[in-house]
Amino acid sequence: MMSDAEFPVARPRRLRRTAAIRRMVAGTRLHPAELVLPMFVKEGVTDPQPVSSMPGVFQHTRDSLRKAAHEAAEAGVGALIVFGIPAVKDARGSAGDDPDGIVQKALADLRADLGDSIVIMSDTCLDEFTDHGHCGVLTPEGEVDNDATLERYASVAVAQAAAGSEVVAPSGMMDGQVAAIRAALDANGFSHIPILAYSAKYASGFYGPFREAAECAPQFGDRNAYQQDPAGPVGEALREVRLDVAEGADAVMVKPALAYLDILRQVRDTVEVPVAAYQVSGEYAMVEAAAANGWIDRDRIIMESLIAIRRAGADMILTYWATEVARRLS
Ligand code: PBG
To answer: Is 201 tagged catalytic?
Structure first.
């Protein structure tokens, strides 16, 4: 090898030699405040119900939800996002905008308990509330009716804001959903409530365990006519994101996370608003299942996957590990 003086050899390892140096140059860091915990609350149960495909995740009672939310806030988690499972479902998802619906009750509980110590968000969609499990209302032919669904979303968003949601997050991938919700919020005295739009949401097998947790698997067909095709043109994601921002989205989301880091990076480079990524149920389940078999180092992989999502451009990360990770970070 030639001497450094004649021909300096590049030595990147110099910056990896000690933990202190590595910490100094680390370009990607996680902070509890950017983590968002998705939570499930189920009407009419007296004990929290474990979700078998998501070990450690529960369908909460109103009381156990309050307790888990309090723990998240204590740990410094930035936000909660609430999903609800009503006792009764129907074709139009009536429980979604019923002021006495389970989500509205849970949002009111959480606001009363937690005030402004943590951001309380709500998922704004219909699939948890419809008996057919689709994210919208159906035409007589059984297709999801885009524009009729917008009216339902507008009403659900207003009901959630009235109950105490501080951020509404439409996840149904209907065209025009952000504009419809923005107009309804503004007309009802909620012009201060931001919209976090699930903008680039793919029709993904990674949502499998969630459908057990939220009891919302479609009873016929699939979501391919409204969620994006994983093989679709990349420009489609950017178009969705730009349209949502133009319609008034205050922040946008890419979902799932790990299999779509390329999309996340391009979205981050395309818009100026905050970008969230959702580390979804299947991403969680795969790690928990492999770890339960002793095949992987669970804690290490959780941190590595979150760092990867952050590095790809996420400002906020929705993750079922939010409370645990927030504790580990502090
Ligand atoms: C729809 C919704 C889904 C998820 C969040 N919101 C399910 C779907 O689109 O089928 C999935 C989240 C996850 O898998 O963790 N309301």
So the answer is: yes
223-249 average pLDDT score: 97
Total residues found in the chain within this entry: 330
Structure tokens at 207: 């949502």
4 domain-assigned: no
Residue owning the nearest CA to atom 9 of ligand 1: 207
Q: Which amino acid is at 248?
A: G
Q: Give residue 24 CA to ligand 1 midpoint distance, Å.
A: 37
Distances in whole angstroms, Cα of residue 330 to Cα of each of 28, 56, 111, 230: 16, 21, 25, 36
Total structural domains within the chain: 1
Query: In the predicted model, what is the mean pLDDT of the chain?
Result: 97
- What's the rounded Cα separation, in Å, for the pair 198 and 122? 12
Please, what is the Cα angle at 206 between 308 and 147, to 5 degrees?
A: 110
Question: In Å, how far are 112, 121, 314 from 116, measured between CA atoms?
Answer: 10, 12, 23
280 within ligand 1 shell (Cβ under 6 A): yes
Expressed as residue numbers, the domain containing 169 is 29-329
- pLDDT tens, 185-198? 999 999 999 999 99
**φ and ψ at 92, to 5 degrees?**
-100, 0
Domain presence at residue 21: no
User: Is the model's pTM score more than 0.85?
Assistant: yes
Structure tokens at 142: 């059984």
- Let me know if residue 14 belongs to a domain: no
**Which CATH number do you get for residue 169?**
3.20.20.70
Mean pLDDT across 73-81: 98
Kindly state if the Cβ of 207 falls inside 6 Å of ligand 1.
yes
| In the predicted structure, residue 2 carries a pLDDT above the cut 80 | no
Average pLDDT of 51-64?
A: 98
Q: Give me 43's structure tokens.
A: 């009407």
Contact 288, 55 (CB under 8 A): yes
- Residue 141 pLDDT greater than 80, yes or no: yes
